[in-house]
Specification:
The chain is of the alpha/beta class. It contains 8 helices and 20 strands.
């Protein structure tokens, strides 16, 4: 069941515009954007802006052109109900100054640099013939899997649809990075297997938004690419999305995530692998996103996991077995923990009509196995959620 958008109406000059109610919550400057690493920095020559509709977008374009900006791209995003603009930064301005000026020129716009993001994964382990079953046992997942009660999505690298464990699954893909070779699909394939492979979610349709080319590990997707992916998933009427990417706070992405939540997209994201001393990584740290960290078979925290007050839940994410040609392999990272929480949400009939991240968070927290310090903490969140006994019922 889709959410009813929480929109308000407002009047801008003589234009009547659908102006969504949103409130950006950027972190303190010292905690994030001033310490962005080279791996997640923007290209330095362009700035992006989200705005309510085409009329206001054209108004901003005219104002920006007078100030020396050159429009690189204008895109209507009907799934999110916004327009995405990309401008070349005028000579003499840095990207931060340009973003602030665009918001001054048009108060209905939300602008920022086009940050880049990276996958929340480590190098994979050696190929193994026999899987370890600890991950399924930890969350009480049955060997035959559970029926999915929601339309699923993922934002990741490409999926190898010829992989035997996925060959019979309903997977719809859309690439935002062009053609991707079979050699650059290992991460997305592993995440898809964790969601809908053998013994996982049954009767599922998975919409896979391809935003990362594994052949170029240091050129992760930009914030604008993630926004386009969210728009496609919203247009596809997806209800529950797994996100395996992490990076710095971005104002435009903040607004897009709120729009996605307004349309009924429930987002679950990996907290990131930059380590316990890292500032919060996004989109996991947004309020409308459920943030998942990784633990090993002994319920110890993964040593690369980002910590903080935004962490919601822990799930298996260390040495997770996935099938591969000639046997299988082990993968590690918070990327592989978030799909377990997605599967629990997707299979729980009590949550089928729930689209609010806040309400899902509260429901799962009430039955989660507490880890670490009593109550919610910055390492494990509310702890380890486990499967509802009712999950076996098919749709």
């Amino acid at each position: 069941m889709r959410a009813i958008p929480r929109l308000t109406l407002c009047v801008a000059l003589t234009l009547v515009s659908a102006c969504e109610s949103f409130h950006l919550k950027p972190p303190p400057l010292s905690a994030d954007s001033s310490t962005v690493s080279a791996e997640v920095a923007e290209d330095g020559v362009s700035v992006i802006a989200l705005i309510n509709n085409v009329d206001l977008a054209l108004l901003l374009e005219r104002k920006a052109r007078r100030e020396g900006y050159r429009l690189l791209r204008r895109e209507r995003l009907p799934g999110l109900g916004v327009v995405l603009l990309t401008f070349a930064v005028p000579t003499g301005l840095d990207v931060t100054q340009a973003a602030a000026e665009l918001e001054r020129l048009e108060p209905h716009a939300t602008a920022d640099r086009d940050h880049r993001y990276r996958l929340s994964t480590q190098a994979t382990g050696p190929r193994m013939a026999q899987p370890q079953g600890f991950a399924h046992a930890m969350i009480r997942w049955p060997a035959q899997g559970c029926a999915s009660l929601r339309r699923l999505g993922m934002i990741d690298s490409a999926v190898d649809l010829a992989t035997p464990s996925l060959a019979s699954e309903r997977i719809v893909t859309e690439s935002f990075v062009g053609e991707v070779t079979a050699h650059a699909r290992s991460h997305g394939t592993a995440v898809a297997q964790t969601l809908v492979g053998d013994g996982r979610l049954r009767e599922a349709t998975l919409h896979a938004a391809v935003v990362f080319d594994e052949r170029r590990p240091n050129a992760g997707p930009s914030a604008s690419t993630l926004i386009r992916a969210l728009d496609w998933l919203a247009q596809s009427r997806v209800e529950l999305v797994n996100i395996s990417l992490a990076g710095p706070y971005n104002r435009a992405l903040d607004r897009a995530v709120q729009r996605a939540a307004d349309t009924g997209l429930l987002l679950v994201a990996a907290v990131g692998n930059e380590g316990p001393d890292s500032p919060p990584r996004y989109p996991a740290a947004f309020a409308d996103v459920i943030a998942v960290t990784a633990v090993d078979a002994a319920l110890r925290i993964y040593d690369g996991a980002v910590m903080g007050a935004h962490v919601d839940f822990s799930a298996p994410g260390v040495d997770i077995y996935v099938q591969a040609d000639g046997g299988g392999r082990y993968v590690t990272g918070t990327s592989f923990a978030s799909p377990f929480v997605v599967a629990i949400i997707a299979s729980d009939p009590r949550l089928q009509e729930t689209v609010s991240a806040k309400r899902v968070r509260q429901s799962l927290a009430g039955e989660a196995r507490d880890l670490g310090s009593p109550g919610r903490d910055e390492t494990f969140g509310f702890g380890l959620p486990t499967l509802s006994a009712q999950c076996l019922a098919s749709r």
